[in-house]
Amino acid sequence: MYNPIYVSNNFLTRSFDQKTPVTAMKIQKMLYFLYRDYLKETGVSLFSERFSAWKYGPVLESVYHTYKRFGANSITDYGGTPAYSIKEEGDDGLLEKLLDKIWGISKPYNGIYLSQLTHQKESAWYKAWMAEQPFLNDDDISSDSVELK
User: Fold this and answer.
1) Could you tell me which residues come within 8 angstroms of residue 11 by beta carbon, excluding any fewer than 6 positions away?
2) What is the rounded CA–CA span in Å between residue 28 and residue 55?
3) Which of 7, 57, 88, 133 has a CA-to-CA distance to 17 between 20 and 30 Å?
């Protein structure tokens, strides 16, 4: 399992290199879709933290606290000091493939749009929210079929 802040830095590297802005909300949703797809592929949790069911969708609280200072503005520096990221080559390249896939699909969208995707009926967030559960269930996440396109 990985620290989600380190993984967020992998997305931020892509953001900074390609001059494509990323907000705190957007990075949360990209991390959710990455986690979901990794869980579906491997059956293993990617992060050492569970997703909370917040009003605007799934949230990793450590990531929220790291980037909340940016508000709705673009994130302009890496999370953590020093700014660690994860080695993407592990898992026979699966993690790198999924990071590239999620980044490639989500980069043209804003956080609000990605949040709306996570709010669809029968999504893992929707199930947790409707049941007033504080966290998303991994079984629900692995069966979440929300299309990210």
Assistant:
1) 22, 27, 30, 31, 99, 102, 103
2) 13
3) 57
Give residue 90's pLDDT.
Answer: 67
Contacts for 14-19: CB closer than 8 Å, 24+ residues apart: 14/99, 14/103, 14/107, 15/75, 15/107, 18/107
Question: How many Cβ atoms from other residues are within 10 Å of residue 7's Cβ?
Answer: 27
Least trusted range by pLDDT, from 2-6, 21-25, 145-149: 145-149
- pLDDT tens-digit map of 42-90: 999 999 899 999 999 999 999 999 999 999 999 999 987 667 877 777 6
Looking up tokens 């900074």, which residue turns up?
Answer: 16
* Tokens of residue 76, six digits: 């302009």
The one-letter amino acid code at 103 reads: W
Between the CA atoms of 49, 77, 54 and 120, what dihedral angle is there, to the nearest 10 degrees?
A: -100
Mean pLDDT over each residue of the chain, to the nearest integer = 93
